[in-house]
Amino acid sequence: MPVPIPVASIPNVPPPQPGQSLPSIPVPTPTVLRSDIAAERTKLLAGPPAPGGGPGLVWLNSTSRVYHCPGTDFYGKTKSGSYVTEGDARAKGAHPSRNKPCP
Length: 103
What we know:
Elements: H1 34-46, E1 57-61, E2 66-68, E3 81-85, H2 86-91, E4 95-96
């Protein structure tokens, strides 16, 4: 959807006359390429998981409030997070990745 830009901020455009509506100028919307997403995912998965995980613990991404189960791609690998029990993650308002609870 185009975002209207005030005419006063556009050079060489006369101000509108009384009763005249302002023209709208479409502004392109930035896009994120799938290749950018894939590259970011590869970077995250390349390194080892954060130390400290173990049986009965999930990785809680503190930014998104999504938790990841042991053995999944993002377990211990998001930029910010910590290991907690699944119950503690739910108590903090988090939900499982892809809405699939841990086995």
